[in-house]
Amino acid sequence: KAGVTQTPRYLIKTRGQQVTLSCSPISGHRSVSWYQQTPGQGLQFLFEYFSETQRNKGNFPGRFSGRQFSNSRSEMNVSTLELGDSALYLCASSSVGYEQYFGPGTRLTVT
Amino acid sequence: GESVGLHLPTLSVQEGDNSIINCAYSNSASDYFIWYKQESGKGPQFIIDIRSNMDKRQGQRVTVLLNKTVKHLSLQIAATQPGDSAVYFCAENSGGSNYKLTFGKGTLLTVNP
Q1: What is the pLDDT, as a whole number, of residue B4?
Q2: How confident is the model at residue B2 (pLDDT cuts 50, 70, 90)?
Q3: What percent helix, strand, coil does chain A show, rounded to 5?
Q4: Which A residues 52-81 touch B at CB under 8 Å?
């Protein structure tokens, strides 16, 4: 089975721009979660989607949003980028139960 | 204010020794715990999990111990190998029936050949 895939793997954006990241979960997995990883804050939960509905949300500003499509693929969007948004953005998918499988991440650099 | 880098706890062991990585979790209501391994440039990789109704679970070369009284988790790696060198994270699910993992700060394990 193919693992979780994330595109693009690397991205450089300028402050004020917006960005969309994509995640394709493992086939059959209906839950997709997003995390932000930075040296300063570690791994932090952004949100989780199941069957196209956001079930859980972390403590991030409204500039961070996401969605899930009927095929379980998910996107997250960050608007009005700030320097502090530079991070590794990780997507994880789950089937039944709590075990989450992570993708390789998208490295976002904001200049 | 300006964020500072996390100062990861580090553990350095000799190849072949056993390693013990510790983690204190925050939410007494968390019902599920996972250990992840993250190598440089990669996403976290699932190692082993344990539910709150258990206090020990064994996998291949790894054992997780859960002490709910003091909210403590440990990961034991037997016969540590150079390929085990990575950052290890514990995570707790605090979202009930939904997924919301809260990660610890991580421990950097270095295995010396």
Answers
A1: 41
A2: very low
A3: 5, 55, 40
A4: 55-56, 58
